[in-house]
Every structure is written in C-alpha cells, then in structure tokens.
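Researcher: Structure prediction, please.
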Amino acid sequence: MQDYKEMLSKLDDECSDELISNGSKEHAQALIYQFFDKAKESVNITSKGLSIYNNNEIAEVLNIALNRGVKIKILLDDYQNNKIANNAFLDNCINNDNCEIKTYDKPLKAHIVTRDNNAFRYCDNPGSNIAVASFNRPDVVKNATEKVFGDFFNQQPKYTTA
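Model: Predicted structure follows.
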C-alpha cells in the first residue's frame, strides 16, 4: 500500500495526466487523502453514503483542507434510502462554512470526486470501489463541474440532520 501512496504523490507532484487504476477501498481512501492533502481551492464529491470517507485520516485531512479555505461540495445521492449516521467525515463538514452539502433523492449513475480544476476520480459503478483517476485532466473536471456541481447541485435541497 505504501508503494501505491508514493506513486500517487509522485504523479500528483508531476501533474501527470496518466490514468490511475483505483480498485479497492484502500486505494480509494489513499487517493481521496491525496486530493484533500493537496487541494488549493475545491473538492467536489458525489457519494451515496460517504463510507470510503469515514476514516480518521481522511476526516483529519479534511479538517486541514477546510482550515486552509478549501471549498467542499458534497452531493449525497439516493438520499431517502440511505440515511447516514456516525460518519466523522460528514460530522466535520456539517457546521463548516467552507462545506456545502446537498441531497438528491435518486441514485446517480456514477460517483465522481474532483479537485481544483484538474484532478478527478470517476466510478461508474457506485456499488464498488473500482474507479479511474488522474491528476491532470482539466477537461473531465470542467465537464463534471458544469454538469453536476453547477446548476444541478445548486437546485438540490440542503442536507439536514433531522
């Protein structure tokens, strides 16, 4: 696992456009950690239950990113069928002005994470951890930002804990 983390760090430092295989929960968590650790402006997330984010290391690096002023958008899909409880990551976001959480009642066809204007992780089977990612694909990030995290995101209801 350490080799995978070192590879991610190297590719990120190089702003590589290489596609990265992301095939396990541990790989997904390592990539998400890298996204938050190096985020300068924003991280956008679609997720059903934030289960891969519910990790102490990720919750901690999220707090560091939020304290740096990184803006976080989270869209929780299939929300009526999937209430979230006991999630440190979500708890850290709820009362932070830099984090905006919205809900969508239907399942999305894919889950995506974007960082700043260039990095992404894309999973077209939301029930699995198998995904592809890259640290330098601004065209993919722009497309996701426009289609998911723009008007569509803004039209969804805000997350409430009630």
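Model: The chain has one domain: 2-154.
Researcher: Thanks, that helps.
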